[in-house]
Amino acid sequence: MRMIGWLVLVVTLVVQAVGLYSPTVPGPQDGPPGLDKVGHLVAFAVPAAVAALLGARWVVVALVVHAVVSEPLQSQLAPLRQPDVLDALADLAGIAVGVAVARALRRRSVIMGG
């Protein structure tokens, strides 16, 4: 079962990288304002939650570093994309949400006898 968790983590990280570094902004271009921030939050929350559930704290630390460097790096790798400090903040918020969800799930599992 643990191997499946690691596979899920790798898949979420690949999806994250494709979304962050694609030449154009993924998703609908004329959606509600701030929709891209939700995308950033989710792109970091899911792998952070999976990593935390796996006990892979080093992955969570790597995600924090990636959140900080991804915006400037993104503008170098995808020149049509503009760096945005709010995107980086959404990334960091996503990591916090992901870790909090993982902790809540672990607590619930302990409480429920899992």
UniProtKB/TrEMBL annotation:
Keywords assigned: Membrane, Transmembrane, Transmembrane helix
Protein name, as recorded: VanZ family protein
Source organism phylogeny: Bacteria, Bacillati, Actinomycetota, Actinomycetes, Micrococcales
Stretches that traverse the bilayer: 41-65
Naturally occurring in which organism (per UniProt): Ornithinimicrobium pekingense
Superkingdom, taxonomy of origin: Bacteria
